[in-house]
């Protein structure tokens, strides 16, 4: 298994570190345009391997030739959000970056599965899908895993129970119109509405929607990367180990949930071929309306991209 990570910033380097620590690949290639940065970070990670007990090899490079024949391409490249900046503000700059990364990487690895982390997530996943020309099951966005993890964290903090007991689903676009689903969120199998009042649920849902901005406001000069990298690597592990995990990921819908030609987060079965199935859960009219609104917001931004 060979995995390429494009972007050696905080998300990319953290992802590469987790991939190496877990031994998910025989070779990892860390790519960045800044000379010396991917080489230095890759060597640093490689030197941690004896401590962690992993034989995964990792190299850093400024070119795409060493990425040839990768099985998975993780795209984290792009500028990060600054305080007061929405995910949508990033769109034009990051679309140009993701286009270039996709073009160069798929030329070297035409059979790879692409996972996109760059923001605005759903639109950048659409860019990678269009530029690569790949089938939709091989181009996935990491959003719902992160948003669901944040929701699970806040539920755990509120109830004082282990995160291991908590399952949660967040659908829709990775932005202000994301759709956390309390009815499908459980603690040891108990539905969330049975454990807390609506006011508390609404507060946790709002904090989940604002999760990225909350961290940006603390950091001032950066954005989240520990949880995003963990979420991306959970997807990679599901593919590498063919785990058939049911995870909320950003994919192109073609009629599922009544939505067409829009990239948005829904639960999928994830295995070695990428997306193996879109899981269609029953939504209330209110939940469906929220998902429709989220998809409409994403589609409006998708339509602004010129190819």
Please summarize what this structure is:
This protein has 307 residues and is of the alpha/beta class. The protein contains ten helices and 14 strands.
Question: What does this 3D model show about the protein?
Answer:
- There is one protein chain.
- With 307 residues, the chain is of the alpha/beta class.
- It folds into 2 domains: 2-141, 3-Layer(aba) Sandwich (Rossmann fold); 144-302, L-2-Hydroxyisocaproate Dehydrogenase, Chain A, domain 2.
- The chain has 10 helices and 14 strands.
- The protein has helices spanning 10-22, 37-46, 49-52, 91-108, 121-132, 144-159, 198-209, 211-219, 226-240, 285-302; strands at residues 2-6, 27-31, 57-61, 72-75, 113-116, 139-141, 166-167, 170-171, 179-180, 186-187, 190-191, 245-254, 260-271, 274-278.
- The strands form 4 sheets. It has a 6-stranded parallel sheet, with helices on both faces.
- The longest helix has 18 residues, at 91-108.
- The chain starts with a strand and ends in a 5-residue tail after the last helix.
Task: Name the features.
307 residues; alpha/beta; Rossmann fold; L-2-Hydroxyisocaproate Dehydrogenase, Chain A, domain 2; 2 domains
How many strands? Answer: 14
Query: What would you say the CATH architecture of the largest domain is?
Result: Alpha-Beta Complex
The CATH topology of the largest domain corresponds to L-2-Hydroxyisocaproate Dehydrogenase, Chain A, domain 2
The amount of beta strand, in percent, is 15-25%
Count of folded domains = 2
In terms of per-residue confidence, which ranges show pLDDT below 50 for 5 or more consecutive residues? none
What is the gyration radius calculated from CA atoms?
Answer: 19 Å
| SSE pattern | EHEHHEEHEHEHEEEEEHHHEEEH
Q: Tally the helices: what do you get? A: 10
Q: Percent range for helical residues?
A: 40-55%
């Amino acid at each position: 298994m060979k995995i390429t990570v494009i972007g050696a910033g905080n998300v990319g380097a953290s992802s590469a570190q987790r991939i190496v620590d877990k031994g998910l690949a025989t070779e990892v290639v860390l790519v960045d345009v800044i000379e010396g940065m991917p080489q230095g970070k890759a060597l640093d990670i490689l030197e941690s391997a004896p401590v962690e007990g992993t034989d995964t090899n990792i190299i850093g490079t400024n070119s795409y030739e060493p990425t040839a024949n990768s099985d998975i391409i993780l795209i984290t490249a792009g500028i990060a959000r600054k305080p007061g900046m929405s995910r949508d503000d990033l769109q034009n700059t990051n679309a140009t970056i993701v286009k270039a990364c996709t073009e160069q990487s798929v030329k070297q690895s035409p059979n790879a599965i692409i996972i996109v982390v760059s923001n605005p997530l759903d639109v950048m996943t659409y860019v990678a899908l269009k530029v690569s020309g790949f089938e939709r099951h091989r181009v996935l966005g990491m959003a719902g895993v992160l948003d669901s993890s944040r929701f699970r964290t806040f539920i755990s903090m509120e109830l004082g129970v282990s995160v291991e007991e908590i399952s949660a689903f967040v659908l829709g676009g990775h932005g202000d119109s994301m759709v956390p689903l309390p009815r499908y969120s459980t603690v040891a199998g108990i539905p969330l509405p049975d454990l807390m009042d609506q006011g508390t649920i609404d507060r946790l849902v709002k904090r989940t929607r604002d999760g990225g901005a909350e961290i940006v406001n603390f950091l001032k000069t950066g954005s989240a990367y520990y949880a995003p990298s963990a979420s991306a690597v959970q997807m990679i592990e599901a593919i590498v180990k063919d785990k058939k995990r049911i995870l909320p990921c950003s994919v192109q819908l073609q009629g599922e949930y009544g939505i067409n030609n829009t990239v948005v987060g829904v639960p999928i079965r994830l295995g070695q071929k990428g997306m193996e199935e879109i899981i269609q859960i029953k939504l209330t009219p209110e939940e469906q309306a929220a998902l429709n609104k989220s998809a409409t917001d994403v589609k409006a931004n998708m339509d602004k991209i010129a190819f």
